[in-house]
Amino acid sequence: MEIWFSAAVGVATACGVFLMLRAHTFTLVIGLTLLSYAVNLFLFASGGLTTDSAAILGENTITSDPLPQALVLTAIVIGFAMTAFACIQAMRARSDSGNDHVDGKEQQESSTKTEAS
After folding, report:
1. Domains in the chain and their CATH numbers?
2. Transmembrane stretches, by residue range (predicted)?
3. How many angstroms separate the CA atoms of 89 and 95, rounded?
4. Is the pLDDT of residue 43 over 60?
């Protein structure tokens, strides 16, 4: 189970970084969100992956640590607020600059560069 879980965290991290490297603000926001989900899954896994066990310590039972679970709940709320703020900022930048690029400039096509030469 741990191998599949770590592979899922790795894929989510890779996809989030890939989307963050794109030149559009929408894909940047989606990449940040996906990366925050991957970090939340990593924090959740640090508490121990157990099934059918109590979260409170008992006698002779395998338990999971409740502290990372509380941290993940807090991170979900903060991540939602950060995503909403980033969406508002992206919409404002789009209305001010007129395009969806991160740097505010249209990327020129390679065919346009060769025709101008």
Report:
1. 2-50+64-103 (1.10.287.3510)
2. 6-21, 28-49, 69-88
3. 10
4. yes
Q: Are 13 and 35 in contact (CB under 8 A)?
A: yes
User: What tokens appear for 77 in the block?
Assistant: 């709320």
Both tokens of residue 35? 């990366």
Distance separating alpha carbons of residues 27 and 93, to the nearest angstrom: 14
Q: What is the mean pLDDT of residues 68-87?
A: 90
pLDDT of 110? 52
Please provide the DSSP assignment of the chain as one string. -HHHHHHHHHHHHHHHHHHHTSSBHHHHHHHHHHHHHHHHHHHHHHT---SS--SS--SS-----HHHHHHHHHHHHHHHHHHHHHHHHHHHHHHHHSS-BTTSSPPPPHHHHHHH-
Q: Residue 30: which of 40, 19, 22 has the closest Cα?
A: 19
| 86 token code pair | 């980033």
In this prediction the pTM is 0.73
